[in-house]
Specification:
8-stranded parallel barrel, alpha+beta
Length: 949
Amino acid sequence: MKHYLQVPRLLFVFSIILFSKSVFAQVTWPAITKQTKPWSRWWWEGSAVNQKDLTTLLQQYKAAGLGGMEITPIYGVRGYEDQFINYLSPKWVSMLSHTLQEGKRLDLGIDLANATGWPFGGPWVTEEDACKEMFFKTFELKTGESLSEAVVYKQEPLVRAEGRNKVDISQIKQPISANKNLQELALDQVRFEKMLPLQVLKAYSDNGQTINLTKEVDASGKLNWKAPAGNWKLYAIFQGWHGKMVERAAPGGEGNVIDHFSKTALNNYLAQFDKAFKGQNVNSIRAFFNDSYEVDDARGQANFTPLLFEEFKKRRGYDLRDELPALLSKENSDKSNRVICDFRTTISELLLENFTMPWHTWAKSKGALIRNQSHGSPANILDQYAAIDIPETEGNDVLRYKFATSAAHVTGKNLTSSESATWLNEHFLSSLGDVKTALDRYLIGGVNHVFYHGIAYSPPSAPWPGWLFYAAVHFTTANPQWNEFSALNEYIARCQSFLQSGKPDQDILQYYPIFDSFSTPGRDLLKHYDGMTEFRGSDFEANAQQMLQRGYSFDFISDRQIQNLQVENQQIKTGGLAYKTILLSAAHYIPLETMQKILDMAKSGATVVIYKNLPANVPGYGNLQQRENQLKELLLQLKFIQTENSSVKKASLGKGSFLMGDDLDQLLAYAKINRETLADHLQFTRRQYQNGKYYFIVNKGNQKAEGWFPLETQAAAIALFDPMFKKSGLAKIRKTKNGNAEVFLQLLPGESCILQTSVKAINGNKYAYWKPSGEAQPIKGTWTLSFTEGGPKLPAKAQLSNLGSWTDINGDDYKNFSGTGKYSITFPKPQTKAAAWQLDLGKVHESAKVFLNGKLIATVIGPNYQVIIPTAEMKATNLLEVSVSNLMANRIADMDRRKVNWKRFYNTNFPARLSVNANQEGIFDASKWLPKPSGLLGPVTLTPIIYTP
């Protein structure tokens, strides 16, 4: 790659496409709408809201550049109990209606969580509809013996709570709703001591005989049966109560979590919303939301439902009660693994068909969409994500995001959302620059509908720092960086205006080998699927990681989704997209119907890539021998021969072929799948539109990236956009030997850009590349530092001959201050001739607005703090003002040292992310923190620049 002078910043860009049928008019940015703007989860603590403050806060959110809010009622704040509003009460619904009306007026979208806290549950969920757990006992008998022990199971009492007080089960009344202090108790899991109902008693002899003895057990648990000849083992299955309560519940929302595998339980749950909403105008709810499946982040597992055995027999073709020894065995045997696979498959299907799909139908009847975090489910999460309108992901791993984005792509859904910036750092230590870095990762991963996590409703009258949620980052008007929050939101809106346009542009469908995991023993009956957690060390993960790093574009696909694939002109089509191949990464198990479909696709012209080996077997136990034979017959159609590439074997089939080998790069090259070599230097995601491609690109490295970067596309023109500073223009491009385009880029570490390639000409200004034309010149003199807003007390004005953290100035007022300080200095216009000047602020803690001669030049949030100033903006004598907002940390630490009680929250009050920051009670405590650097540290320099052709 040819390198030019390393120049700091993407400069001009005048932006995207105005469509005039198939040609562009001028380079221009896409329209910004409420959907392209970032949204936020909105915690209604205690639902202690009122119409006046709701309106005030919504106006502030609108002004800050947010596009919508998701209402999630949550636990309350101490001292405001008289303002709590019970969830779904008429008063609560009236507050929702007011919010919806104000959302319409302000053009803010409103989503609503279908629960308080998470998961779905509440006081109206009865024991019959609550989540269940399977318990079992075994007994052994010999010929002629009778069982003296009663066939009974007493559920042991259990209580787990999140509150600050230790809770004893003797304090808890039945039902849960009968307890008057549920906010204080903060119950997470409750099991009362009780005798559990017997579901089945089955006897198994050592000669293979089985007898169902359930009806031989009387009401007292006595088994009226004498063992026939042989050695017998008896398995008794009991239905227990898992006991999971709604986590972080709001007032009126405390209670049992539903049985997610029961459609009846779901319908009864949703009926409470039908009742509450009857006669109310809630039609403008855009989407209902469900948080990640977190039923089993408790003791035990919700692994049973009353109709489990009937559903299993209907779906798997045999009776699970006949195979209880295999299901409950701790041995790693083939039969046991197959029965467990069938059990997990059945649970997966029940979650999809009895929860996700009917919930979607219910929301549709309300004119609303659904957003869902499917990760963490004991299920095939690709199918779960595919069944909803807006899949939502979270975390820090691009491969984790791909489960949500892939399902959206494969099923033709335009939006993938993210729960963003949940925990970046310890409380109060994350800057807007940190948040931008995290959000860029989501955008690279295919997310195009960001949700912050989140903003707590906090009445303007609440003392600083106001009401807060227990997870960082704290997006609140009390945060000094709220002054620059709109700059981050405008950046995301500009990025998402492109990433919500066009369609995904992926080449490869990677088969999700869920049955390899379903068939592998684990600690418990169920496994929970969250990104690659259950595939660590697998070839599936290794191939995905390699493709990500090497610049291949790919999506995951499930067995169910494969059935919907079509092949046209050697392309694999689904969801309005066309893929070039499907990849099987050394999968061991594959359903018969999946393999048949893949073979049929090859016959129609598809290229199928097999990494290492063909699948060896079918999953599950039912009708096994016949299915195994059928798979063998199918695979006999494939006659592999060595190609001229010694590492690749090929089997032609109809119009298509299978390629097999153990070098993924060579396999994909042979399949004519080209990678984006751009990925060797930069991270990117790619979309397509009528005339070309969109690229969102981020420099994640520690060095400036400047030079020619190849693209895997042809282009007559490329528009280049800087979404942070809204600058755009036509990029400098040239052709490579293969006819593709190379583009010239200048990106600082952490900087991003958007490319819009076109096979047709684009009218617009050229992008203004630049380079230094002289040495950096320090701005010398005395700076005046004055404090404009914040607390606990505005420090006195200071004169600074040398820049540094304002916490280094003598006096506690400076050390304890969180807010905004304005640095001012006058300087003469430099004598050096230059087209423009690069103003470099050096180190800044944390975000800043830059004014020159009273005019706002730019808002900078990091990680870089350089600004271009046209020479025309310079006067003979210039006034430079830099308003810097620091973290909340120093003021919080001062409050903790003075033992000011700001941690006044029920339930989770107030956990530290890192144990080093927790006091003896386990609560976050910043009293030992040293002052965090704050303000403009510099050095501040001006560098003359020239624009290059």
